[in-house]
């Protein structure tokens, strides 16, 4: 198993642009009431940097590992979703929702179906169901079923990420831990969005949403770095 120190030394420098872009977003803190292509660029810039992070490992790496390609594709759809959500008050919220739904499908596929880990699946199903029960009284029209489908997809993604983290059997790797933490943070970010949009205002919601979102995407991108080790582990199980 690769040590965290080795990971920081090898991958840290490649993530410097991402951290700088994230700092730019929070320092500028452009008002959401005035959407523009510039604000869309600033919001998407950290995700663009994660594209570069994966591409920096070389075309051979991406060609050899389907999981990494799926995560890269998920990041591309995430950037599209981010751009649509800049104009959510102008009627593009559903478009952003659909882009992120595709992202979760791609991430789920990248994480794979082995090991199955039924307990983790039941836990994520319960979390998704209870979240939808909380939101349901506030939903109307197409959001009644769109949010249900979205909750199912992100819950499934969370299940596949958590299922890979086999702490009890000492089979975990830092990439699996990264995927697990990333998925959980993604769920926290989306839950905050949903509660803030449909239920009641959440204090400091934007800061919570974006901090957890950027951290989630970084961790999920990091989980792709050792795809070969993950694939070998899957074959063994």
TrEMBL record:
Membrane topology per record: Multi-pass membrane protein
Catalytic class of the enzyme: hydrolase
Spans through the membrane: 37-56, 68-87, 93-113, 120-139, 145-165, 177-195, 207-225
GO MF terms held by the record: alkenylglycerophosphocholine hydrolase activity
Subcellular location as annotated: Membrane
Cellular-component GO terms for this entry: membrane
Keywords assigned: Membrane, Transmembrane, Transmembrane helix
Catalysis performed (reactions): a 1-O-(1Z-alkenyl)-sn-glycero-3-phosphoethanolamine + H2O = a 2,3-saturated aldehyde + sn-glycero-3-phosphoethanolamine; a 1-O-(1Z-alkenyl)-sn-glycero-3-phosphocholine + H2O = a 2,3-saturated aldehyde + sn-glycerol 3-phosphocholine
The enzyme's E.C. designation: 3.3.2.2
Annotated family: Belongs to the TMEM86 family.
PANTHER family (alphabetical): GH04784P (PTHR31885), LYSOPLASMALOGENASE-LIKE PROTEIN TMEM86A (PTHR31885:SF10)
Protein name in the entry: lysoplasmalogenase
Lineage: Eukaryota, Metazoa, Chordata, Craniata, Vertebrata
């Amino acid at each position: 198993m690769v040590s965290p120190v080795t990971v920081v030394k090898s991958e840290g420098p490649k993530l410097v642009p991402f951290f700088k872009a994230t700092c730019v977003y929070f320092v500028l803190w452009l008002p959401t009431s005035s959407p523009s292509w510039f604000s869309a660029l600033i919001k998407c810039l950290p995700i663009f940097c994660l594209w570069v992070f994966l591409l920096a490992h070389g075309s051979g790496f991406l060609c050899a590992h389907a999981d990494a390609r799926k995560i890269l594709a998920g990041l591309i759809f995430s950037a599209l979703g981010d751009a649509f959500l800049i104009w959510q008050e102008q009627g593009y919220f559903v478009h952003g929702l659909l882009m992120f739904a595709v992202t979760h499908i791609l991430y789920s596929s990248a994480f794979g179906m082995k090991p199955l880990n039924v307990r983790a699946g039941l836990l994520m199903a319960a979390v998704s169901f209870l979240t939808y029960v909380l939101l349901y009284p506030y939903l109307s029209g197409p959001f009644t079923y769109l949010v249900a489908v979205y909750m199912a997809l992100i819950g499934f993604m969370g299940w596949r990420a958590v299922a890979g983290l086999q702490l009890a059997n000492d089979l975990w790797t830092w990439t699996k831990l990264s995927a697990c933490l990333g998925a959980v943070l993604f769920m926290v970010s989306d839950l905050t969005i949903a509660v803030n949009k449909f239920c009641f205002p959440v204090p400091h919601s934007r800061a919570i949403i974006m901090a957890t979102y950027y951290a989630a995407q970084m961790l999920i991108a990091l989980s792709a770095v050792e795809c070969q080790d993950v694939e070998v582990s899957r074959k063994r199980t």
